[in-house]
Design goal:
The structure is a homodimer. Chain A is an alpha/beta fold. The first copy, chain A, is built from six helices and six strands, in the order E-H-H-E-H-E-H-E-H-E-E-H. Chain A has one domain: 3-Layer(aba) Sandwich (Undecaprenyl pyrophosphate synthetase). Chain A is about 35% helix and about 20% strand.
Chain lengths: ~220, ~220
């Protein structure tokens, strides 16, 4: 709780792209799949950090439809890491929603309840993207709005409608790109890149991102 | 033409966010509006650089619907800068399209022909965003697809449907955010930030961005 005082202004909603699991494993001479389980543990550490800081909402990439082009053993590994994450995370003081196409065979069936509704009433809203696709997300809204009886605007009809605007987006692993991460919620996000691979996550990296964010002015495009 | 040889891999399509015109003017003790006309000249220089390098397509922010919240004299200044840019640019070897809501009073009426169709058959495709809004862009597709006789996918129905996927997005002025810049075309873009204000544009800054881009691997989210 003391850490919060370090920042003059905290983001309400943080997005996380935990990239570099495979590169980390390769650099250590491990199988690429082994990076994901270590990454999952770092995800729990980071979530606990958000809880301590009093951040209200966090959205994190589990895996995407684009990722499904990878070899089967990697797919099994990142799917298993997502399941393990949820298993442990649900014990924390969170409210968890999974955003992703649960009708696909690529979606871990045990996670389906979290895709249907937000589970838990804890103080941190956690949105986990599992079998997520930016095109699928927007198409969901487009198809819904094509129904003549539908009067809600397209943002309220996105598959990710329950995910709010992201203030700060932090990507690990050095790449400076969104890779399809919640494009509507990210239009005004401040984007910070950590060069280290995600399995080398350390809270100081996150603090640096938060410190940088506290110095940005929010204009929402104005 | 020699410059092209410096890069092992050039982006096909470059996006440009020319930010910092007002901060530049303020730092020089000038009126904020004066920054825009200098910025316009830098835009022409950068377009010529793209022509020299053999880049195929460039998209650039003129102004957005969000920007229309600014004082009237600023609005007049950035509108005038866009008109002047088009007036000079159309003499170059380009094919120019303006993407923006031309039905609004905020849209400079003299530019309307460019919003209705691409004008010119030159080798560089230039897309200029004038009175552009990310929400308006996507809503255009949503509304079109709600028509029962419409069979095209939503990406073909965007107001920006004629703008292709962006490979490299370069923002001047130090901010690390998209500010609503073509969200669909930017989902996989590599994002490079130049700290200098746009009116301090120098082609070396652009070369550095291109050099950085040439070392990135393109995965399209895979």
């Amino acid at each position: 709780m003391t850490a919060k005082r370090q920042f003059s202004r905290l983001p309400r909603h943080v997005g996380i792209i935990p990239d570099g699991n495979r590169r980390w494993a390769k650099a250590k001479g491990l199988h690429p799949a082994q990076g994901y389980m270590v990454g999952m543990e770092r995800g729990l550490a980071m979530m606990d950090e958000c809880l301590d800081l009093g951040i209200e909402e966090v959205s994190v990439y589990g895996f995407t439809m684009d990722n499904n082009k990878r070899p089967r053993e990697q797919r099994l590994a990142f799917g298993a890491a997502c399941v393990k994450f949820v298993e442990i995370a649900q014990e924390r003081d969170i409210a968890l929603k999974i955003v992703g196409d649960h009708t696909s065979a690529m979606f871990p069936s045990v996670l389906k309840p979290y895709a249907l509704e937000r589970i838990g009433t804890g103080k941190l809203k956690v949105n986990m993207l599992v079998n997520y696709g930016w095109n699928w997300d927007i198409q969901t809204a487009v198809k819904a709005q094509a129904r003549p009886e539908e009067t809600r605007g397209f943002q309220d009809l996105l598959a990710s409608a329950d995910v709010s605007r992201i203030d700060l987006l932090v990507r690990w692993g050095g790449m400076r790109r969104l890779s399809g991460f919640l494009p509507i919620q990210s239009v005004y996000s401040d984007f910070y890149v950590v060069d280290q691979y995600w399995p080398d996550y350390d809270h100081d990296q996150f603090y640096e991102a938060l410190n940088w964010y506290s110095k940005q002015d929010v204009t929402l495009g104005g």
